[in-house]
Specification:
The complex is a heterodimer. Chain A is mainly alpha-helical. Helices cover about 80% and strands about 0% of the residues of chain A. Chain B is built from 12 helices and no strands. Classes of the chains: A mainly alpha, B mainly alpha.
């Protein structure tokens, strides 16, 4: 009896303990911040998916008219009747003859099961099946570029702000040009110079030379790197330029703040002052990281088409060219998911790093 | 709309002059305000360069100089001149179909510029409406509009353009529609910028005076707040034009731009260069010209932007 009552007492204590933790979680400013962001992004996904649902249904025409050529009006009534049958069959297959709200519910059921339909050109392979391997190729391009350009660009920008005179202006000029030359143009230049000209880098559809076998050998690895590098180089140059310009401006602004002016008067070493300035100047860069990530993903899509690196971009180009509608939608959704997940992680990291959010005084 | 411009070349000249005056109009307010630290080297350089571009369009006026960009060039024996290198008659050579690249460039610059200007006009109009309402009314309207703006900002630009442009059949796409599609993806950050400007202006004495004297909100916004923002709006116009031109070329690289036979833009030229694998060849006249024009245009806009940015944010002054 005593043992039982002790047990129940312990359980009650535990229950209270858990409730306390939950309450702590709900009121703590950082977790509130994370929740707010999560809700925001879920709204975005919802709107995007509704958008994806709405567009084909509000465009003129139906699947039969879009995919096949309808017989002209003056022809044989038998042909017209046949086409009408085909049209009705296709509408039934795509569920377009049901009322709109039913279609919407069906749409959501499919989406939640990650079923995006089958592509027209690669029938009967599903869109998800086709898109996922391509996604890996794209991520291999996006993620390293993001990290390396962020650290490299901010490092250059931070240093440049403390350089005297001519170097400063030189870095400024260089970063303007690299950040503002249209990236596809830079890609074409690099292609011409390195692929066509020097042959150091290669570009073949599929991402490797046709005569190399896909096994884990050194040859395969080097060949893949040679195919990978031009796209990587283009993206790095453009992104680093962008970060360097921003960081330089922020650090220059930071240099004017009182504590650094005072430190300069006190005779601090440039290195120490730079470290202090960089630490404060880098925080706004994180807010820009979101938009840059979106930019980067857009750029990657286009750059892949130039260098024929088999990622989502090439898939998108193919899908548009062959009017393969489910595939277009699929690439859009996959890209959107990457963007949202990336943005969400950046937001969380920013919340973690900015001390004002953790203490609830900012954010 | 663009057919009209094509037929009435005089109107196109007037449009270019308007663009000229727009750029020129940036600089008078600054001199009037006596901003003596205003660096003349970069900005006048940028100003001068910015005026050259509209004049490229004037080349279309000289029929002998600029030929039809879609017609193959033939020599006197009727052979199609494919992949000719630049010569006296064909200033930039010909492409894979024998079309004169220089004429393509002239027409492409004009079309790209028209798309850019149209987009910026649409974007500025939308952004003024949304930004100033949000900033002026404040409160829940502000929050709601900012929520919408944030949602649209999060959408990655190129995939959205992908979907929009892919849903519209190639025959239906013309320059105005491309401009509309581009403006849908660009307006959020412009609305934000305008909103912050209006918010700073809202606290000024003359606005408070107007409010006290019973002017309606709309009147205050139109008569008091907006005219003070004209310089900033001009700057935004320039930036959005540049951004739109680059974005249009970007979607053309995927094949989503205006269809090539009736319309040609700088992006289409680059698209064909990649499609035909001409970049694998040594024919520099095919892939350098559109890119050089694009880069030059962007650099000019950036110089203008950063100089005017120094005026609006004096903290970023270079010493």
């Amino acid at each position: 009896m005593v043992a039982e009552s002790i047990e129940t007492a312990e359980k009650q204590e535990e229950g209270v303990f858990i409730l306390d933790r939950l309450k702590g979680l709900a009121t703590h400013s950082y977790s509130r911040f994370v929740l707010k962001k999560a809700v925001f992004y879920l709204i975005v996904i919802f709107i995007a998916l509704t958008f994806v649902f709405a567009i084909p249904r509000f465009m003129p025409g139906d699947p039969a008219t879009r995919l096949l050529r309808p017989p002209p009006t003056g022809s044989d009534p038998a042909r017209l009747a046949q086409f009408k049958e085909i049209k009705q069959a296709m509408n039934a297959y795509y569920g377009l003859d049901k009322p709109l709200h039913e279609q919407y519910i069906d749409f959501w059921i499919h989406i939640l099961q990650f079923d995006l339909g089958s592509s027209y050109t690669y029938y009967p392979r599903t869109v998800v099946e086709i898109a996922l391997p391509r996604l890996i190729y794209s991520l291999v391009l996006v993620i390293p570029v993001l990290f390396i350009s962020f650290f490299l660009g901010n490092w250059i920008g931070g240093r440049a702000a403390f350089l005297k005179g001519r170097f400063n202006d030189l870095v400024y000029l260089f970063s303007i040009i690299t950040a503002n030359a249209p990236f596809y143009w830079l890609g074409i230049i690099i292609f011409v110079y390195f692929v066509t000209g020097d042959n150091i880098f290669l570009s073949h559809p599929g991402g490797i030379s046709p005569d190399i076998s896909r096994e884990l050998s050194l040859e395969f690895f080097i060949d893949t790197i040679r195919h990978y590098f031009p796209a990587f180089l283009t993206l790095i140059i453009v992104m680093t330029g962008g970060w360097a310009t921003g960081m330089r401006a922020m650090t220059l602004y930071e240099k004017e703040s009182e504590y650094l002016l005072y430190a300069k008067q006190m005779g601090f070493r440039t290195r120490t002052m730079r470290r202090y300035a960089q630490r404060n100047a880098i925080l706004p860069q994180f807010t820009g990281l979101n938009l840059r990530l979106n930019e980067l993903i857009g750029m990657t899509i286009i750059i892949e088409n130039i260098f024929l690196w088999p990622g989502i971009g090439v898939l998108a180009g193919q899908a548009i060219g062959s009017q393969d509608y489910p595939l277009v939608i699929g690439t859009f959704l996959v890209t959107l998911v990457i963007v949202i997940v990336g943005n969400f992680f950046v937001d969380i990291t920013y919340g973690f790093l900015d001390p004002r959010i953790k203490t609830g005084h900012g954010g | 709309m663009f057919g009209y411009l094509r037929r009435h070349q005089g109107f196109t000249i007037a449009l270019c002059l308007f663009f000229l005056i727009l750029f020129f109009g940036f600089f008078f307010p600054e001199f009037r305000l006596g901003l003596f630290y205003y660096k003349t080297e970069y900005s006048t350089f940028g100003f001068v360069l910015a005026d050259i571009f509209p004049f490229l369009d004037l080349f279309i006026e000289f029929p002998g100089f600029v030929k039809d960009p879609f017609a193959g060039q033939f020599d006197q024996w009727g052979t199609r001149l494919i992949f000719e290198s630049p010569s006296e008659y064909l200033l930039l050579g010909t492409d894979d179909y024998g079309r004169d690249v220089f004429s393509q460039l002239a027409h492409a610059t004009q079309n790209s510029l028209l798309i850019g200007i149209t987009t910026s006009i649409i974007v500025i109009t939308m952004a003024i409406a949304i930004g100033s309402i949000a900033a002026y009314k404040g409160g829940i309207i502000d929050e709601f509009l900012m929520l919408i703006t944030n949602i649209v900002i999060v959408f990655p630009v190129y995939p959205v353009l992908l979907i929009l442009a892919a849903s519209i059949r190639p025959q239906d796409r013309d320059l105005t529609l491309i401009a509309i599609i581009l403006s849908v993806t660009t307006w959020p950050w412009v609305a934000r910028a305008i909103r912050s400007q209006v918010m700073t202006l809202r606290e000024r004495d003359f606005v408070n005076l107007a409010r006290v004297s019973g002017m309606s909100d709309l009147r205050i916004a139109a008569v008091e707040v907006l005219p003070n923002m004209f310089a900033y709006l001009g700057l935004l116009l320039a930036i959005v034009t540049g951004g739109a031109i680059v974005a249009e070329a970007g979607i053309s690289m995927l094949g989503l731009g205006p269809p090539s036979p009736p319309y040609i833009t700088l992006g289409s030229m680059l698209y064909w260069v990649v499609q035909n694998e001409s970049i694998r060849s040594e024919m520099y006249w095919l892939y350098y010209p559109p890119g050089i024009i694009l880069t030059a245009f962007l650099v000019i806009l950036y110089i203008l932007h950063s100089n005017l940015d120094e005026i609006f944010n004096p903290r970023l002054k270079r010493h």
